[in-house]
Amino acid sequence: GGHWVGVLDLFGFENLRPDAPNGLEQLLINHANEQLQDYYDECVEQGMNEYALEGLDTTGLDLELPNRRKISAAVRAVGLVLDLLGDQNNARNGTDAAFLQAV
């Protein structure tokens, strides 16, 4: 096992101005990033569990996932907010105020 570095080029970052306020576009980009990180962490965790079941020694691997629960919670929270936004969008008389109240 040699060392390696993976690079993933995500959409959207090149179009964001540093002085722009955080808006829906930034929320969606962050949410996509958090989902990707959550998926990656889940795959690593499953792999480590498989290694343990097979009795493989993983003591030399440094694959701790200290933010796993936080990232998963953030993904769920943003998903809930987007669901509420969708509800207001689909409501006949949906309003910004009703969305804020629901959040």
From TrEMBL:
GO terms for cellular component: cytoplasm; membrane; myosin complex. Keywords: Actin-binding, ATP-binding, Motor protein, Myosin, Nucleotide-binding. Coiled coil: none annotated. Residues 1-103 form the Myosin motor domain. InterPro entries: Kinesin_motor_dom_sf, Myosin_head_motor_dom-like, P-loop_NTPase. PROSITE patterns: MYOSIN_MOTOR. GO terms for molecular function: actin filament binding; ATP binding; microfilament motor activity. GO terms for biological process: actin filament organization. Belongs to the TRAFAC class myosin-kinesin ATPase superfamily. Myosin family. PANTHER family: DILUTE CLASS UNCONVENTIONAL MYOSIN, ISOFORM C, MYOSIN. This is Myosin motor domain-containing protein.
